[in-house]
Design brief:
By secondary structure, the chain is mainly α. The protein has one domain. The chain has 19 helices and six strands. The strands form two sheets. The protein has a three-stranded parallel sheet with strand order 5-1-6. The relative contact order is 0.17.
Length: about 450
C-alpha cells in the first residue's frame, strides 16, 4: 500500500504508464514494448482530459443557460464513454483491474464456470468503472473490487449464454461478447421479448429496417460524429441565447458548435491511443491464458461488441433512437426525472441494440420498443449516478473536472447493471451489499457451470 500510494500520488497520467509497463513485463513482452504501451496510454489520458476540459468549459455554461431559458434541468454534461473509460482506468480500482480481471477469468475457466477467454482487455474499464463508483461511495477500495468482480462474473455468464445467438444472427462462430455495457441489456431484452410474446396482437407486430440506412441517402451524413456534434452544439448555444453576430462580442453559437464538433471527433481519437497502448497487453494476455488451458474444452474468444455492430437492424435502430433520445431527455426533464443533456454518447446508441436484436430474433418492433424503454431507464440512472460519477472524476483528475459541474454519460453512467451493483451499498449497507453481490455471483457461476456441463 505504501508503494501504491506513492505511485497513485503521481497522478493518473503518470501512474497508468507505470502500471501498464510493469504488467507488460510480467506477461513477457519485453521492456521496449511495455514502456511504449505505457507511454501511449498516458498520452491518451492527457489528450482526453484536455478535450473534456475544453468541451466542458464551452458546453456547461451553455447547457445551464438553455435549462434556465426553457425551465429544464439539463445541467449534467454527457462527457461520453472515452472520458468514462479514462476516469475508470485512472482510479485505484482501474490500476489493478487488468490483472484482477484476467485472474477471475482464469479461475472461472479452471472451475468450468465459463467458456469465454476474455481478450478484450480495453473493455475491462467497464468493470473498473463499477468498482470505482462503489469505492467512492463507500470510501473503501476493497468493496470497489468486490463490485468489479461481481460485474465480471455476471457479464461472463451473459457472454456464454448469448454466444450462440451471435453465431446465428451475426455469423460470429466461436465468439462471445463480454462487453459490460452492451451485455447489461441482455436480461432486460429477454424479459421485454417474453412479455410481448404473451400479448395477443402485439406479438404479431414487426417491421423490417434492414435497408433503413440506405434509404437515408445523403441525409445519413447528419449522424456522423463531427456533423452531429456541430449541430448539437449550435442548437444548444442558439437556444441558450448566445449571439450569432460576432460583432456583439463574447462567445458565439458558431464557436460552441465547432467546439462540440471537435470534441466528438477528438475524444474517440484520444481513446484510440488508449486502445493502441493496450493492444500488446491484450495479445500477451490471450497467449498467457491459451497456453495454460489448451485442450481443456471448447472456448469462446471474448471480443469487443463492435464485432457485432454491422448487423443492418442494429445500425438502423441506432440511427432512429438518436433523435428520440434527445426528445426523451427533454420530456423526462420536464417531469423532473432527468438532468442529463445527451451529447458525446449519442454515438454509442447502436451498441445498446447489439444484444437486443438477436434476443428479439430480428424483430424490429420489439427491439425498438426495448431500446426506448432502456433509454428512459438509462437517463434516470445516469442522473441518479451523476454525483458519484463526478466525485470519481475529480479524484482521478481534479484539474480537468473541477468547476465543470455534474457530469455523467450514457456509457456506463446509464448502465442498469452498474446501477444494480452500486446502489445496494447505499440501500442496504456495506455488509448487506457484499452478501447480496457474493451470493448472486456465486449462483450465476454455479448455474453456468451446470449449463456448460449439460451441453
Amino acid at each position: 500500500m505504501f508503494i501504491f500510494e506513492i505511485i497513485s500520488g503521481l497522478g493518473s497520467t503518470v501512474m497508468m504508464p507505470i502500471i501498464i509497463t510493469v504488467f507488460g513485463l510480467i506477461l513477457g513482452i519485453g521492456f521496449g514494448k511495455s514502456f511504449r504501451a505505457g507511454l501511449t496510454v498516458g498520452v491518451g489520458l492527457i489528450g482526453l482530459n484536455a478535450v473534456i476540459g475544453l468541451m466542458g468549459g464551452a458546453l456547461a455554461p451553455a447547457a445551464a443557460q438553455l435549462s434556465a431559458n426553457f425551465g429544464l434541468q439539463l445541467d449534467i454534461i454527457d462527457v461520453g464513454w472515452p472520458a468514462a473509460a479514462a476516469i475508470a482506468f485512472a482510479g485505484k480500482v482501474g490500476t489493478l483491474i487488468i490483472p484482477v480481471g484476467i485472474a477471475v477469468n482464469m479461475v472461472m475457466i479452471a472451475t468450468k464456470s465459463t467458456q469465454t477467454i476474455n481478450i478484450d482487455i480495453w473493455n475491462f474499464w467497464h468493470y473498473a468503472f463499477t468498482g470505482g463508483l462503489v469505492a467512492s461511495l463507500t470510501d473503501n477500495l476493497l468493496l470497489g473490487f468486490v463490485a468489479a468482480i461481481a460485474n465480471i462474473v455476471i457479464v461472463m455468464v451473459i457472454a456464454d449464454v448469448t454466444a450462440p445467438l451471435f453465431e446465428e444472427y451475426n455469423g460470429l462462430t466461436g465468439v462471445s461478447i463480454p462487453m459490460a455495457f452492451s451485455a447489461a441489456y441482455a436480461p432486460i431484452a429477454w424479459v421485454v421479448n417474453e412479455v410481448i410474446e404473451r400479448i395477443p396482437g402485439l406479438n404479431k407486430l414487426d417491421f423490417n429496417l434492414d435497408d433503413f440506412q440506405n434509404k437515408l441517402g445523403g441525409a445519413s451524413i447528419l449522424f456522423e460524429p463531427i456533423v452531429l456534434g456541430t449541430i448539437i452544439g449550435f442548437l444548444v448555444a442558439l437556444f441558450a441565447g448566445y449571439p450569432i453576430d460576432p460583432r456583439v462580442g463574447g462567445t458565439t453559437v458558431f464557436s460552441i458548435a465547432m467546439t462540440m464538433g471537435a470534441a466528438l471527433v477528438l475524444i474517440p481519437k484520444m481513446a484510440s491511443l488508449l486502445m493502441e497502448g493496450l493492444i500488446p497487453i491484450a495479445q500477451a494476455s490471450q497467449e498467457f491464458v491459451q497456453k495454460r488451458y489448451e485442450g481443456k474444452g471448447n472456448f469462446y474468444i471474448g471480443l469487443d461488441s463492435a464485432v457485432a455492430l454491422g448487423h443492418p437492424l442494429t445500425l438502423a435502430l441506432g440511427i432512429i433512437i438518436t433523435p428520440l433520445t434527445l426528445l426523451i431527455a427533454v420530456g423526462l426533464s420536464k417531469i423532473g426525472l432527468n438532468g442529463v443533456l445527451p451529447a458525446v454518447d449519442l454515438v454509442v446508441l447502436p451498441f445498446i441494440f447489439i444484444f437486443v436484436v438477436p434476443i428479439c430474433k430480428g424483430n424490429g418492433f420489439r427491439a425498438l420498443l426495448t431500446g426506448i424503454l432502456l433509454i428512459v431507464a438509462g437517463l434516470m440512472i445516469s442522473t441518479s449516478l451523476a454525483p458519484v460519477f463526478t466525485d470519481v472524476a475529480i479524484m482521478a483528475d481534479a484539474a480537468s473536472y473541477e468547476g465543470v459541474g455534474l457530469i455523467s454519460s450514457i456509457c456506463d453512467g446509464a448502465n442498469p447493471l452498474t446501477y444494480i451493483l452500486v446502489m445496494p451499498f447505499k440501500w442496504i449497507g456495506e455488509m448487506g451489499a457484499v452478501v447480496v453481490l457474493s451470493v448472486v455471483s456465486l449462483v450465476a457461476a454455479i448455474w453456468n457451470r451446470r449449463r456448460i456441463a449439460s451441453l
